Amino acid sequence: MRQSRSLSAVEAATNVVVGWLVALATQLAVFPAVGLQVTLAQHLWTSLAFTSVSFLRGYLLRRLFVRLG
Q1: What pTM value is reported for the model?
Q2: pLDDT tens, per residue, the chain with 69 residues
């Protein structure tokens, strides 16, 4: 059974959102513990950049694996 492009996008987005929430919570806990002072806005902007890259990576890898078989 093949997965549609739109369903691939939904799956990748869900994976990225859950990963983003875990990463953000980890940043909020770990950064202060290692002496990094970062504002919430800086956390959000940085995580937005990485989330965008992660979504694109997940989507493209899913499409590659669907194509391969």
Answers
A1: 0.61
A2: 688 889 988 887 898 888 888 888 888 898 899 999 999 999 888 777 877 888 788 889 988 998 998
